[in-house]
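Example for tutorial group B:
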């Protein structure tokens, strides 16, 4: 009897795991940019070898390739590879206005130009600072959770290789992971839903930075009820 109960529990556990995996939905089909739209800047995005490739261009600010729809509570997983001279990121629960809009943030008035993407960002930082996996509030409040006190996460990033990012949003709880290592873990109430977006950072007048690339692949999301 005990043996049968053990087998039944094992089967149920396996079925639960399969259903959990099935709950993930691909945001990128590996072939086209269907379901995505570009906002803010004019960096170049293309699909190559099953990955979204973002390339820096001169004369533009930060660029974002955004999902066409918004997400609230979810687990987002993806892989990325970045040129060591770049800075990039993955936006989540992020938004933009269709016209210039002024809002109050932390008691101060802030004006957002039309189409300027802003919100939470999973930082991609291949510099010696090594804050990949930290969370930056793009266009609003700056750093919400850097990695200066998380040496394990700072060491988890693999220079010049594919890295795995995981972002978990449940209500006000926000957690990130880099290659399976816990990175950011905090609570914030400002934004409950928004788009997912792939950032190509503006390069200003640095002509030597033109043509640098960052890549993302296997982008999938599990919405949480």
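The residue assignment follows.
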């Amino acid at each position: 009897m005990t043996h049968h109960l053990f087998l039944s529990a094992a089967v149920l556990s396996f079925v639960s795991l399969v259903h959990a995996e099935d709950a993930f939905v691909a945001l990128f089909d590996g072939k086209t940019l269907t379901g995505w739209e570009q906002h803010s800047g004019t960096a170049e995005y293309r699909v190559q070898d099953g990955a979204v490739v973002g390339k820096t261009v001169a004369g533009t600010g930060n660029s974002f390739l955004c999902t066409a729809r918004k997400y609230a509570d979810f687990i987002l997983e993806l892989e990325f590879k970045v040129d060591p001279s770049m800075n990039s990121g993955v936006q989540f629960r992020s938004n933009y206005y269709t016209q210039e809009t002024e809002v109050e943030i932390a008691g101060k008035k802030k004006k957002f130009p039309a189409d300027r993407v802003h919100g939470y960002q999973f930082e991609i930082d291949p510099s010696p600072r090594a804050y990949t996996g930290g969370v930056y509030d793009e266009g609003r409040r700056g750093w919400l959770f850097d990695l200066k006190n998380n040496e394990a996460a700072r060491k988890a990033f693999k220079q010049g290789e594919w890295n795995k990012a995981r972002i978990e949003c449940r209500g006000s709880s926000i957690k990130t992971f880099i290659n399976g290592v816990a990175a950011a873990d905090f609570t914030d109430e400002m934004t409950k839903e928004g788009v997912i977006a792939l950032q190509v950072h503006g390069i200003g007048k640095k002509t030597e930075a033109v043509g640098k690339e960052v890549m993302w692949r296997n982008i999938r999301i599990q919405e949480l009820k």
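The longest helix spans residues 2-22. Compare this with the pattern of hydrophobic and polar residues in the output above.
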